[in-house]
Amino acid sequence: MIFRTFEKQELKKLFEILAAHNRIIGPVETGRDRDGRPVYAFADVTDYDDVELKYSITKLPAKRFFLPFKEDLSTFRIENDTWQKEISYNVDRPLIFFGLHPCDINALNKLDKVLLHSVYPMPYYAAKRENMFIVGMDCIPQPYCFCRSMGSDTALHGFDMFITDLGSRYFVEILSNTAFNFLKNIKTSEPGEDDHVLYMKVVAKRNNEFTRHVDTTDLTKILDMEFQSEVWKEWGDKCLSCGTCSSVCPTCYCYGVDETVDIDLKGARKTKMLHSCNLIDFAEVAGGHNFRPGRENRLKYRYYHKHRGFVEAFEESLCVGCGRCGESCLADITVPEVIDSIRGSGRNK
Amino acid sequence: MNPELKFTDVAAELYAPQKRKDDLKGFEYTYRAEITSIYPLTEMETLYRIQVVDPEERRRFAFTPGQFLMLEMPGIGEAPFSISSSPSIHGEVELCIRKVGNLTNFLPRVKRGTHVGIRGPFGTGFPMQNMHGQNVLLIAGGLGLVPLRSPIAYVMENRSHFRDVNIIYGTKNPSQLLFTYQYEIWRKDDIDIEIIVEKADKSWKGPSGLITDPLEDILSGRDSEYYHNTYAIVCGPPVMFKFVCNMLNEFHIPMQKMFVSLERRMHCGMGKCCRCNVGSTYTCLTGPVFDYWTVMNLKEAI
Ligand SMILES: Cc1cc2nc3c(=O)[nH]c(=O)nc-3n(C[C@H](O)[C@H](O)[C@H](O)COP(=O)(O)OP(=O)(O)OC[C@H]3O[C@@H](n4cnc5c(N)ncnc54)[C@H](O)[C@@H]3O)c2cc1C
Ligand code: SF4
Ligand code: SF4
Ligand code: FES
């Protein structure tokens, strides 16, 4: 690992050099919520002053840039009884992500496991993922995030460079050759022992700021044991089956596929659209049978996939603890509360 | 039961892992295929014979009984269907399709010669070679006979490798019976076949009742030597599995010799869309064929 430090004004320089040649996605403020707090989103940025490096969290994850809500898997030209299939992975240039937090970087690492590193890797994702340059940025823990419990409070890989604010200057961890070369454009220096001490102090301070925790010990077993628990029914009764939790989740990737004929009847397209396991038709099959007819079945399933199925396959859960789903849920259903209640349900009986 | 552990020979061919595609271009690759024959079976079901167009691709397109493919009609839809024909024929498959929605209602209206796309084959199959030297029970309810026609074809082509073979097939009423013209051919190959319908009509001369009735008759006349050396394959609607599997279990058919083929919603066939999730896994990758031990360990499987 290679580390450097640089003066704060150098970051603007770096941004401007990169922005002159590349499309950059970064956190910007898009408005205020009803309590007057800023609302952030990942968007195209060309002016460094628009980038909100001290952002809390974005409402939506960056996933629309690599798992768009809707994209064509293929298009067809129809000719009498036959057709020609054309495939595009829907990406034509690299993207720079400027200021991703560790949770969102870890979300990408988790998606990589299933979408890149398992059987039948997905080219639509791979093509976009291979064209990302990621500048990570440390975050300010929020009351709803429990990333530390999920082991996602720091990112070990999955970025090109990662910036930590030491107060007076920036500390940067460099993981890729590309990042190393980019940094040659600005003034950086070898960190000294005092920088190391300061870095560790900053990290320790941040570690103490995480307030929300969730106990995941033995969770895979507990989810199996408490599969029939009444607690699921209670959460199911609250859930609106709206699917918001999945759309704001940086790790939810489930989808459906639809085909349509173009209006001129000469073409057709096959379109992939992100779905949510909380939506009623998720597991409905021909003949009208629904494998998960109740809201509690579907809600339970979302937890079961993230904290049981994915763990079985990849030794880690499919949740980075960003807290977005809980913050956006109109029924106030939060991951820590659901998991706590499942753990508790055995004890009360 | 025999308490002695069996030796597993990892050098044996049967132990070899299944090949899986891992190249990026394979993901959305479709074989261009031609519908060569359209054969109506009942009011609801039609049998299609489909042939891969490119001769080289045709030679390569091989599958194991129990696997499925994704059939695509550009602009209309894409859906999973069980392959319902002999695995020894490469590049040509038979699919028996029930009319239930967009794609399946469109297909009966196309002409012979129309081109469709196929992807696959996907999923796990029945381990036919492990069954050599054993008795086989093939149990189907309703549309479940469709995936069974592939192992039936295998058994017929390799009849000398199998001991007793029984097909037990049930539907709601006689008009829903599929492949009625084949029963005699199967019987001639020394395959015992029991047909039962839930609701008989005037024309029906056979027995009526539940599929577990003939199954119980077959099983109760046998001894433990039979039970320990019998494989069972069960395909049918969700409600059927529990009753049939419980009965097989009561007679101590070994759990790892009982296979079911599960149906779930599928939008990719490659472990990506998650629609087919069952318990902690995917029906399209670890299934659709599961042994009963696995099924018992999967939540909401049957
Ligand atoms: C492994 C497997 C093997 C199958 N084998 C056969 C077979 O041999 N013969 C046969 O007739 N059918 C089979 N099916 C069911 C078949 O896939 C559905 O009938 C088909 O998807 C319906 O497509 P459609 O476009 O006509 O329906 P749509 O218009 O898409 O939908 C109609 C209804 O079907 C349901 N549906 C949609 N997609 C699926 C899906 N992928 N699976 C199940 N239901 C769905 C919807 O909930 C809806 O209620 C199999 C399914 C699986 C998973
Ligand atoms: S948990 Fe909340 S956000 Fe998710 S579907 Fe239910 S009500 Fe909607
Ligand atoms: S499940 Fe909720 S907390 Fe976990 S990663 Fe998704 S949005 Fe964040
Ligand atoms: S069909 Fe998409 S994951 Fe199985």
Task: Walk me through what this model shows.
- The complex is a heterodimer of chains A (349) and B (302).
- With 349 residues, chain A is α/β, with parallel strands linked by helices.
- Chain A has 2 domains: 2-67 and 90-208, no CATH class; 219-251 and 278-347, no CATH class.
- Chain A contains 11 helices and 11 strands.
- Chain A has helices at residues 8-21, 102-115, 123-129, 177-182, 193-207, 219-225, 230-238, 244-248, 295-314, 324-328, 335-348, and strands at residues 2-7, 23-32, 38-45, 70-79, 82-86, 95-100, 132-137, 161-165, 169-174, 255-261, 267-274.
- In chain A, the strands form 2 sheets. In chain A, strands 1-9-8-7-6-2-3 form a 7-stranded mixed β-sheet, sandwiched between helices. Chain A has a 4-stranded antiparallel β-sheet with strand order 5-4-11-10, with no helix packed on it.
- In chain A, strand 10 and strand 11 (267-274) form a beta hairpin.
- In chain A, helix 6 (219-225) runs antiparallel to helix 9 (295-314).
- Chain A is globular and about 70 Å long.
- The mean pLDDT of chain A is 93.
- By secondary structure, chain B is an alpha/beta fold.
- Chain B has 2 domains: 17-121, Translation factors (Elongation Factor Tu (Ef-tu), domain 3); 128-296, Nucleotide-binding domain of ferredoxin-NADP reductase (FNR) module (Rossmann fold, 3-Layer(aba) Sandwich).
- Chain B is 22% helix and 27% strand.
- Chain B contains 9 helices and 14 strands.
- In chain B, strands 4-3-6-1-2-5 form a 6-stranded antiparallel β-sheet.
- In chain B, a hairpin with a 2-residue loop joins strand 12 and strand 13.
- In chain B, helix 5 (212-220) runs parallel beside helix 7 (238-250).
- Chain B starts with 30 loop residues before the first strand and ends in a 6-residue tail after the last helix.
- The model of chain B is unreliable at 15-20 (pLDDT under 50).
- The chains are: A alpha/beta (349), B alpha/beta (302).
- The interface between A and B is large, with 54 and 46 residues.
- The structure holds flavin-adenine dinucleotide, iron/sulfur cluster (2 copies) and FE2/S2 (inorganic) cluster (FES).
- One iron/sulfur cluster is lined by residues 239-245, 278, 299, 329-331, 333 of chain A.
